[in-house]
Amino acid sequence: MAFVSGNSVDSSPSWHKQPDAEYPTDGSLKSIRILGTSVACATYDSALARIMALARERRPTAVCPTNTHILGEARHNPDFARVLAGFDLVLPDGMPVVWALNFGGADLKDRVYGPYTMRLVVQHTPRPWRHFFFGDSEECLVELRRALVQLQPDIDIVGMLSPPFRPFTESDEVLFADTINRADPDFVWVALPGVRMERWISDNQTRYRRGVFLAVGDAFALLSGRRSFAPPWMQRMGLTWGLPVKQGAAPTGPALPAISFHV
């Protein structure tokens, strides 16, 4: 561990049936159920407005940009489906999710990708907004801080914490909560492996006084420059690539991108 300063689940959905749209009256966004999970019909602008509204609430809130891997996990695991159902905002992170929403009448032009959402929020939340970053390595957090200050010179980073790369103990969780609560952030950016990340946010909400917790996965590695983004044309097709990070032993051969579906 290292500190760096500073709705009920529908169990039988069908792709051949137009998903049911939900029109909330509490200021949240219209959503459509995909594989049993309600996903917001969000754009970057509407997501930004909703995230900032959640950050103002005097309770802990949660946001999850989701792809088909996460939706598939929820479809086959009722316990994880309940985890996602407890999030205040589920965003369409992958292009196939956007295509499914559009099948239900959403008429979206783009996804709401977690790393781009984090970049957008940071750009629009100078002081007195407060940010805390939880996850990844200490080296990544140092580089991330440098990149974020360049992106938003008036950013207020009230804490960064690289948790241990092992299952967290109860004493770990107590320490995390004490550290984050003392920092009193408006935004808690969480970069842990998928599924584990969403579970961690859900399981520990009662430990926290306030702040919007955002499950942004590999956003720290991408925005810090430790990995590169796939070109826009690939992203529009639902593709991405994986590149080695700048830590550990150097590869012995040429580092070629591994192209895969960004689902």
Your description of this structure?
The chain is α/β, with parallel strands linked by helices. The chain has a single domain (30-223), classed as Rossmann fold, CATH 3.40.50. The protein has helices at 44-55, 68-76, 78-85, 95-103, 114-123, 138-151, 170-183, 196-203, 219-223, 232-236; strands at 2-4, 21-22, 31-34, 37-40, 60-66, 89-92, 131-135, 157-162, 187-191, 211-215, 239-242, 258-261. The strands form three sheets. The chain has a seven-stranded mixed sheet with strand order 1-8-7-9-10-5-6, with helices on both faces. A three-stranded antiparallel sheet has the order 2-3-4. It has a two-stranded antiparallel ribbon with strand order 11-12. Helix 2 (68-76) packs across helix 3. The longest helix is centred in the middle third of the chain and has 14 residues, at 138-151. The chain is globular and about 45 Å long. The chain starts with a strand and ends with a strand. Residues 5-19 and 243-262 have low confidence and may be disordered.
What would a concise description of this structure say?
The chain is of the alpha/beta class and 263 residues long.
Number of helices: 10
Number of separate structural domains: 1
Strand content: 15-25%
Biggest sheet record: 7 strands, mixed
Uncertain residue segments: 5-19, 243-262
Provide the spatial order of strands within the biggest beta sheet: 1-8-7-9-10-5-6
Structure class = alpha/beta
β-strand number? 12
Q: Which CATH top level class fits? A: Alpha Beta
Write down the secondary-structure element order: EEEEHEHHEHHEHEHEHEHHEE
Helical coverage, percent range: 25-40%
By CATH, the architecture is named: 3-Layer(aba) Sandwich
Overall, the morphology is globular
Which fold does the CATH topology refer to?
Rossmann fold
Q: Note the gap between the termini.
A: 31 Å
What is the mean predicted local confidence, pLDDT? 84
Give Rg in angstroms.
18 Å
